[in-house]
Model the fold of this input.
Amino acid sequence: MRIISLFSGAGGMDLGFAKAGFEVIWANEYDKSIWSTYEANHTTILNRCDIRSVSCADVPECDGIIGGPPCQSWSEAGKSKGIEDSRGQLFYEFIRILKDKNPKFFVAENVSGMMAQPHQEAVKNITGLFESAGYVVHIKMLNAADFGVPQDRKRVFYVGFRQDLAVEFVWPSALPRITLREAIGDLPSALPAQAKNKRNPVCPVPNHEYMKGGFSSMYMSRNRVRGWDEQSFTIQAGGRHAPTHPQAPPMTFIAKDQRIFAVGQEHLYRRLSIRECARIQTFPDDFFFKYEYLADGYKMVGNAVPVELAYNVALAIRAGLGGEI
Done:
C-alpha cells in the first residue's frame, strides 16, 4: 500500500510504517538541516519545498497520508498559541493535500498539549475539517512506553478512514515495557562533543557523543535521572534538555524547584548521547544522523515519532483495512 509522508523530519514514522509493510513513495520536509539525514537513510523521493507552496498536482496518488505537523505552537512548554500560530495552521496544509488525494486513511501525530482545555475548540474544528473531507476520525493519546519504546512520551494521534470504507478501527493494545538497561545497556562509553559542541568523529559508535555545557536552573529544578530498570523521560528536541544517563544516582532535593547532583558523584552526570536518545526513540543502529553541530542531531532525534510506536499504529491501521498491503 503506497503512502506519502508530510512534515517527515528524520522519518521515524516513515520507518515504522515501512516495517509494517507500507511503501513510502514520497515525503516532504522543509528543514534543510534534516535533508542529508533523510536522504541517507531512506530511498523515498524527498520534496524539500515549503508545504504551503507544494501544488497538489506534484504529490503522487496514494493510499494513505502520514505526518506530524509542527508541534511547537501546541506544546505545554511553549506559549501554547495553538491554531492561532502560523505553525499550528500547517494542519490546514495537511488537510488540503488530504482532500485532493482522497486516500483510504491518514495519520496525524501531535503533542499532548494539543488536548489541553484552551485548545478544545481548535481540536473540534480540526476534527470537523477531517470529517468534512470525508473521513471517520479516531483520536487518542498514546504513551510510547506502552508500545515497545523505553520512554514516557505521550502524543496525540488522529487516525482517519474514508467514510465509504466503513472501517472498524481498534487502537493497538499495550505491550510489556522496555527498560533503559534493555535499550542502551550494551553501548560502550560515549564521548563528549568537540569544541563548540561539534560532532566527535572518533566515536566508537556513530552519533554516540553527548552535548557539553552547564545545566540551567530549569534543568536543575527537577530530577532528570531515570534508573536502569525504568523508562526514560521524554526525549526532547533540545540537547541541553536531554535526560541524564542512568549511571548517575537521582538528583538530591534541596528545596522547591531546586536540586543538585549527588555530592561526590558529580562526575557521573552527563546528558544522554545522540545515539542513546536514538535507541530510546527506537531508531535502528544503522540509521546515521548527519550533522556538524550536536544541536541539530538532538533536534532530529527528539522531534521524531518513535519508530516502534509508529509501527504499532501502522499494524492497527493495516488490520482495520483487512490486512491489505
Q: What stands out?
A: Residues 72-80 have pLDDT under 50 and may be disordered. The CA atoms of residues 210 and 273 lie 4 Å apart. Residues 307-320 form the longest helix (14 residues). The longest strand covers residues 135-143.
